[in-house]
Amino acid sequence: MRRMVNILLACDLCVCVYGSVHAQPADSIAAPTGRRTMPADAGDGAFPLFGIFRNNYLSTGFSTAAPVSQYTADVKFQLSVALRIWRMTDTSEMLFTYTQRSFWDIYRESCPFRENDSNPGLWFSWRPVQGIRLMFGLEHESNGFYGDRSRSWNYVSVGCVWAAHERWRVGVRAWYGYYDRKNCPSWFRYRGYGMFWVTYHTLNERLSATVLVNPSNWFRNYNLQGEVSWRLSRRSSYSPALFIRCDAGYAETMLSYNRYSSMVRIGISLTNGGFGFY
Question: Which of 38, 76, 229, 246 could form a disulfide with 241 if both were Cys (CB 3.0 to 4.6 A apart)?
């Protein structure tokens, strides 16, 4: 019974976030010409005053490297929002962002949270031409633990999202910064220095597939993510979507950044239209 209540509370939290940010900005609506235009959030659309930053999702899954049990299955969810604090020009703005990623051992006795990773940031967004958005950010990420279980780092991020075609979006992001050398001395070896991703979507954007590659250990290893999602509504690109995702590699959690994991998860997500930033 307690587990059911916890799941319902998590679902209610996601619904509250959706209710706060699902309104579609006017400049992201396709022109009434009968022909689909590029997603505005990937190129020409400004961020709303308050809205979704990275994907918001609630999922459950299991490890493919061990028998399925209460110790190898969990719930993972992410909440990510952006507050526009300064619209500098028609094509640039300053954002304060906050992302929290949580790993919840809901199938174990007492349903403990295994880890909650917090990631606040300050970003400058610029759209130099239609279909391209450049992102420059200062970020902090930590897992909230003390002592030997503490993991944290402060870093600079540079990213780009490009609506390369009406069916394709391409993104790249690189980072570098200072990390806790005492508790995670080999952080960059497993976390790497950047990632790139490719997203294919149908013309109505209901069906999409994304492959994300995060090279690590100087391109000797690769952290991989593959996802297929189906948006529930045809009317808005901000509507919920069902997805299945496969993750394989290191650094999925900060606490166990140097341990290999392989997970399959299914869930429901909310995204920022055509922005698609990871």
Answer: 229
